[in-house]
Amino acid sequence: MQDLERTWNHKFNYPWTFFNDVPFTDHFKKKTQEQTKAKCNYEVIPKEHWDVPSWINDALMGESARMLTEQGTQYANLVSYHKMCRWNSGMFYKHPALANTRYYWRVEPKVHFFCDVDYDIFRYMEDHNKTYGFTINLYDDPVSIPTLWPETEKFLAAHPEYLHKNNAMDWVTDSERRPVHNKKANGYSTCHFWSNFEIADMELWRSRAYEDYFNHLDRAGGFFYERWGDAPVHSIALGLFEDKSKIHW
Questions:
Q1: Nearest to 122 by CA among 106, 99, 109
Q2: Mean predicted confidence (pLDDT) in 77-94
Q3: What are the two backbone dihedrals, phi and then psi, of residue 22, each rounded to the nearest 5 degrees?
Q4: Fewer CB within 10 A of the end CB, N or C, for the chain?
Q5: How confident is the model at residue 51 (pLDDT cuts 50, 70, 90)?
């Protein structure tokens, strides 16, 4: 927060909105508000957005977590991490506190911003018709997402109308750079935008295409039976449903 205020937000004073599954302490509120002249909002995530869905089998979830942990998948045994990935994939933009907000810059604990930014990034997004901004691409652990692409293919088969004409399918399914990753992930390159730093237009997440896609994935159970992260989910959706010219580095 200190980094982003120093390098950028002290010039624009955009509000900060903090989310947690429990109320923030007065100490946290005091310390964070001291870092900025902008307004700080402190929001609690509704239980229906955070809790494990009723259709998830607890025994299967536990056994899956054990197997993933044995294979070295990070955070596989933390239910809270699975909840967080699901919330960041398909719930955060539904929070009432964001009802009148279109653009956001995601800021995670322990991230750092080193370079001065002298322009209004949200104005830039709007003026240049950009949907998504990213800083780095990474390859995900294919063991954590073996059925994400097969489920995506099922969704595309049912909804071919959602595939954008100027899509980034070649990037999503690339098998040349990391062929082993592609094979283990059953057709997905595993390359994704690191969402810890994402800047995005929530109109995409609120679109019918993305909402239908998220609901399909949610019912499939991979957020809890595997370890689907919001980064590959967001990245695949952008690569398929959005005009790739609207993705900005």
A1: 106
A2: 98
A3: -135, 160
A4: C
A5: very high
Q: In the chain, what are the helix, strand and coil shares in percent, each to the nearest 5?
A: 50, 10, 40
Instruction: Determine which one of 198, 203, 226, 242 is catalytic.
Output: 198
**Which residues, in sequence order, are bridge partners of residue 132?**
200, 247
What pLDDT is recorded for position 213? 98
Q: Are strands 199-201 and 132-133 parallel, antiparallel or unpaired?
A: antiparallel
- Establish how many alpha carbons lie within 13 A of residue 47's alpha carbon, considering only the half-sphere containing its beta carbon: 1
Place of tokens 């004409």: 165
CA-based R_g, the chain, Å: 18
Whether residue 174 contacts residue 191, with contact meaning beta carbons closer than 8 Å, is answered with yes
d(CA 145, CA 232): 9
CB burial string 107-134: b at 16+ within 10 A, e below: beeeeebeeeeeeebbeebeeeebbbbb
Residue 194 CB contacts under 8 Å (≥ 6 apart), including other chains:
134, 135, 136, 137, 138, 231
Report the C-alpha gap between 6 and 11 in whole angstroms. Answer: 9
Q: What is the pLDDT of residue 93?
A: 98
pLDDT category at 56 given cuts 50, 70, 90 is very high
Active site residue 198: yes
CA distance 46 to 227: 22
Q: How far is CA 135 from the centre of its chain?
A: 14
Please compute, for residue 71, the number of CA atoms within 13 A of its CA located in the half-sphere on the CB side: 16
User: Alpha carbon of 182 to those of 139, 142, 175, 189, 195: distances in Å?
Assistant: 10, 8, 6, 5, 20
